[in-house]
Specification:
The protein is an alpha/beta fold. It folds into two domains: 150 residues, SPOUT methyltransferase, trefoil knot domain (Alpha/beta knot), CATH 3.40.1280.10; 60 residues, Orthogonal Bundle (Trp Operon Repressor, Chain A). The protein is 32% helix and 17% strand. Strands 2-1-6-5-7 form a five-stranded parallel β-sheet. Strands 3-4 form a two-stranded antiparallel sheet. Strands 8-9 form a two-stranded antiparallel sheet. Strand 8 and strand 9 form a beta hairpin. Helix 3 crosses helix 4 and helix 6 packs across helix 7.
């Protein structure tokens, strides 16, 4: 799968793209990430990528010409999306990552800056995506989250595919509690059921814990899961 990141700060991605499972996935060519700087497509001597907004107001906006030129310089694969990272977009969620990982050959991700982008950039965009209901200094942070969330779902990235099926949000519920050695730590002990060897009982306990944890911590998710489970 190909990812094209339109960013004024390519160096932001240098370390994350070489680290952990993300770095391993790229090294194994499970995915490829290309970084394109809109500043390389400016035509004035100052290489301006921003300007003042019409009508006044604080801050600067990213100009449309460099962004259009940067996106239009890229190869276009059959199944692709052009995504703008913006607080006004659809909030990231696990089904979105699953959709991207399973249904697309290419994601072009535009990272905004300053007070945002010229509205005409939306003529390029097929989808607006947000990390959450808050504002960050740049679009690179949510873009990295999107990269990570999608690439980890691509076949070959995670060694044990089964581990993806039981984690939070995969079945509409939060993950169950997990423990490792030592058996006792500062007075806290691993639940007896996990040491029983009875896999049916362990599965039942884990499902109960998922339901209880989701109900307590994320009542919104619990209500959605409950409605789906009873329909």
């Amino acid at each position: 799968m190909r990812f094209d990141i339109i960013t004024l700060f390519p160096d932001f991605f240098a370390s994350p793209l070489q680290s952990g499972l993300l770095g391993k996935a790229l090294a194994k060519q499970i995915a490829e990430v290309h970084l394109t700087n809109p500043r390389d497509f400016t035509t004035d001597k100052h290489r301006r990528v921003d300007d003042e907004p019409y009508g006044g107001g604080v801050g600067m906006l990213m100009k449309p010409e460099p962004i259009f030129a940067a996106v239009e310089s890229l190869p276009v694969l059959p199944r692709h999306e052009v995504i703008l990272m913006t607080p006004q977009g659809e909030t990231m969620h696990q089904p979105m990552f699953q959709e991207f990982a399973g249904g697309y050959d290419q994601l072009v991700i535009i990272c905004g800056h300053y007070e945002g982008v010229d509205e005409r950039v939306l003529h390029l965009v097929t989808r607006e995506v947000s990390l959450g209901d808050f504002v960050l200094t740049c679009g690179e942070i949510p873009a990295l989250a999107l990269l990570n969330g999608v690439i980890r779902l691509l076949p070959g990235t995670i060694g044990k595919v089964e581990s993806l099926k039981a984690e939070s949000f995969e079945a509409g519920l939060l993950d169950y509690p997990q423990y490792t050695r030592p058996l006792q730590f500062r007075g806290w002990q691993v639940p007896e059921v996990l040491r029983s060897g009875n896999h049916a009982e362990i599965d039942r306990w884990r499902k109960e814990q998922q339901i209880q944890r989701t109900r307590d911590r994320r009542p919104d998710l619990y209500e959605t899961w409950l409605n789906q489970a009873t329909n």
